[in-house]
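As a warm-up, study this chain.
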Amino acid sequence: MNILAYIIIGLFIGWLFRIISKDREVAMLPSLAFGVLGALAGTLIVHFLGLAGAAFYAVVGAVGVLFTVNVFRQKDPIFVETDKIS
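Now compare it with the structure written out below.
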């Protein structure tokens, strides 16, 4: 049952990322998928290390994966000033 909660957290973070980056042509499905992937990765790492607060780390993992994917986007990254991109 917990894994479903982490998937929902990842979906929410992916949806929120999509809403924030709507004008930059970020598609909904990849945002949701990377959000879930990050949430599950963060949760698995926390469970592997035996730490508490898996939901918090699910959020951190989802945001981290979405940020990393955005950094490596070829077309118009979101968190970079567009004037400096050539």
